Amino acid sequence: MNKLTLKHKVDIAFAALLTIFISLVYFTYNRAQSVRHNREMVMQTSNINGVLEKVLSSTIDIETGTRGYTITGDENYLQVYNEGQRDLQIWLDSLNSMSQNSEVMTISLDTLHRLIQSKQKNSAKTISLRREEGMESAAENVKSGRGKEIMDSIRNSIQEYQ
Predict the structure, then answer these.
(1) How far apart are CA 153 and CA 92, in angstroms?
(2) pLDDT digits (tens, 9 = 90+) for 87-129
(3) Are 59 and 88 in contact (CB under 8 A)?
(4) What string of H, E and C letters represents the secondary structure of the chain?
(5) CA 48/CA 122 separation, integer angstroms
(6) pLDDT tens for residues 13-55?
(7) Which pTM was predicted?
(8) Comparing C-alpha atoms, which of 80, 70, 72 is closest to residue 141?
């Protein structure tokens, strides 16, 4: 049997240490990439949740302006309604752009869009009834509970989306 010389033993030890070092570098790099990806996902989720809260807030502004106008007939309440409409569109556009890469998120967003459109139509109808037929007619529309039902569905949809 051939005896290993000291040089061969040092070469084998060096090769083993080099292999261990390369393995550690590889696994550390992969772990760092995983942590970076997870951090990006958390930030994206946080951003989406923030925008969803803004969507809900704008929808509540629409509801508040509608009810204020229905009760008082004061056109100043429609300023809150109009600002809510404007802000809502901005936040929905942001949400659309943030959700483009996920089919599941897009499907959930489509549901939310339909609910919001229903809320907008119901609010516009209430305002129109108040203007054209008076408070009694508008109040009957509010009493039907359809607006509350839609708003509850919007809240649930946002909660599920989050």
Answers:
(1) 17
(2) 999 999 988 888 777 666 766 788 899 999 999 999 999 999 9
(3) yes
(4) CCCCCHHHHHHHHHHHHHHHHHHHHHHHHHHHHHHHHHHHHHHHHHHHHHHHHHHHHHHHHHHHHHHHHHHHCCCCHHHHHHHHHHHHHHHHHHHHHHCCCCHHHHHHHHHHHHHHHHHHHHHHHHHHHHHHHCHHHHHHHHHCCHHHHHHHHHHHHHHHHC
(5) 26
(6) 999 999 999 999 999 999 999 999 999 888 888 888 899 999 9
(7) 0.74
(8) 70
Predicted confidence at residue 51, as pLDDT, reads 92
What does the block give as tokens for 39?
């951090």
pLDDT at 154: 94
Residue 60: Cβ-neighbour burial (10 angstroms; 0-12, 13-18, 19+):
middle
Q: What pLDDT score was predicted for residue 2?
A: 66
Q: How many CB atoms lie within 10 A of CB 95?
A: 20
Q: Which amino acid is at 46?
A: S
